[in-house]
Amino acid sequence: MQNKTIVAVAVGLGLLTLSACGSTDGGGGATESKTVTLVSHDSWAVSKSVLADFEKQSGYKVKVLKDGDAGQAVNKAILTKDNPQGDVFFGVDNTLLSRALDNGLFQPYEAKGLAQVDARFQLDADKHRVTPVDYGDICVNYDKKYFAEHKLNPPASFDDLVKPAYKNLLVTENASTSSPGLGFLLGSAAKYGDEGWEGYWKKLKANGVKVVDGWEQAYNEEFSGSAGGRKAGADRPLVVSYASSPPAEVIFGDPKPTTAPTGVATGTCFRQVEFAGLLDNAANGKGGKALIDFLISKKFQEDMPLNMFVYPVVKGAAVPAEFTRYGPAAKDPETMDPAKIADRRDQWVKSWTSLVLK
């Protein structure tokens, strides 16, 4: 996620050492390419051993190109769709799915193993232009130490965030450039409806919400509860992130804390589903299909939680105990029909930009 998704520390650990070899088939050459290129957001990660197994079994080497926040990556993929950077795009989520589909970003492919993917995540089931890979919840996270020191209860809901007690405490991402930022906007629209979300954001703005371009900046530079924020002296104890961010703080902590230093305002969550798709003008379509099959294999799905801090979509895929212990999925997240997102998203973002950034 995001995202997605979750912690720059995970990406920075060098979890990917990827190489590319073989000839490039430019779409119609005589020699099949043995390199398959995945385009994704900055939070893509996989265990070396799991990736090595795929490369050995498939005969393909995987090259990964990271294009920033999910929103930025999707926009770039659309702009380059006639001459794509790669074969598979991973990281388009339900908030931006219609934009990608309406722009003809993907070609149909029904992945092997799709029957094992929970039907509630298959949002393009009739055409199979995208394959669900993971889900998670976009939520406000809080810095436990800050609230303990100030003898203040952390916020628990959207309503709480506009109260005077939380003035100048929240940082969020730009809804026009960031997937979690857009998810938070859609969460507020789902909560307050077409007639109420703008009034809510007027209150948030009056209460000192800070907006930055993307998740990396918000979480690792502005949020006082993150490992990066603590080192940098960040001063915002509330951030729009993910329900799975707290376990990442524990697992990648140095030294590792016994409890998560951050918590989740569970009444602020919006459910996010991420997809992968075979790019319409992919040079290596055969390799791209093999890679998509791999993304919904049980081995990859069970590897995901501790690398990208998202939940698997394949039925029966196990989730590590340390992941669920510190970051359980939200019990009642806000959701929105994809058709409504498609119909209203661009106007909501335009209105949000005018209201909050000007």
TrEMBL record:
* Transmembrane segment boundaries: none
Signal as a keyword of this entry, yes or no, is: yes
CDD domains on file: PBP2_TbpA
Q: Which residues form the signal peptide?
A: 1-22
Q: Which SUPFAM superfamilies match?
A: Periplasmic binding protein-like II (SSF53850)
Keyword entries, A-Z: Signal
Q: What is this protein called?
A: Thiamine ABC transporter substrate-binding protein
Its organism's taxonomic lineage begins at: Bacteria, Bacillati, Actinomycetota, Actinomycetes, Kitasatosporales
